[in-house]
């Protein structure tokens, strides 16, 4: 009796298929939202990285502020001023630009120990 009902009327079958498709799409949207939420939480919990104006990490700079990273620099251009060839050269950055990274944070006791 059930197969006759499902195959007998096309509108019931179409409604069932449509509702299953909508359910599947909603489930995929929920999974995608959960994944985006997890990525946002991981990003929020990560401390900011000190990055120089040359886009290299502060760890690539010495005490005097010179960058020790190697970058590819254009050496030849065509008539439209597009680079044709590159060669590795040291980064020309001279100083770290940005906020000073925090060292150890010390919070004194709120209660007087006397």
Q: Could you explain the architecture of this structure?
A:
This protein is an alpha+beta fold. The protein is 38% helix and 14% strand. It is built from two helices and two strands; from the N terminus they run ααββ. The chain has helices at residues 2-8, 10-45; strands at 70-77, 83-90. Strands 1-2 form a two-stranded antiparallel sheet. The radius of gyration is 30 Å and the shape is flat. The termini are far apart. The model has no long low-confidence stretch (mean pLDDT 80).
Average pLDDT, rounded to a whole number, is: 80
- Strand residue content: 5-15%
**What is the number of helical segments per DSSP (H or I, 4+ residues)?**
2
Radius of gyration: 30 Å
Could you estimate the helical fraction of the residues in percent?
Answer: 25-40%
How are strands sequenced across the largest beta sheet?
A: 1-2
What structural class results from the helix and strand content?
alpha+beta
How far is the N terminus from the C terminus?
Answer: 86 Å
Secondary-structure element order, N to C = HHEE
Shape: flat
Number of strands: 2
Which spans have pLDDT < 50 for at least 5 consecutive residues? none
The major beta sheet can be summarized as:
2 strands, antiparallel
Question: What is the subunit arrangement here?
Answer: single chain
Secondary structure: elements and pairs:
Layout: H1 2-8, H2 10-45, E1 70-77, E2 83-90
Antiparallel strand pairs: 1-2
Summarize the structure.
The protein is of the alpha+beta class and 114 residues long. It has 2 helices and 2 strands, in the order ααββ.
């Amino acid at each position: 009796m059930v197969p006759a009902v499902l195959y007998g009327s096309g509108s019931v079958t179409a409604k069932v298929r449509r509702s299953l498709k909508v359910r599947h799409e909603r489930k995929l949207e929920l999974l995608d939202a959960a994944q985006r939420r997890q990525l946002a939480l991981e990003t929020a919990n990560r401390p900011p990285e000190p990055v120089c104006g040359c886009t290299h990490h502060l760890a690539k700079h010495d005490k005097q502020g010179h960058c020790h990273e190697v970058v590819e620099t254009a050496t030849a251009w065509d008539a439209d001023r597009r680079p044709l060839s590159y060669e590795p050269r040291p980064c020309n950055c001279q100083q770290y630009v940005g906020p000073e990274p925090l060292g150890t944070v010390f919070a004194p006791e709120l209660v007087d120990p006397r």
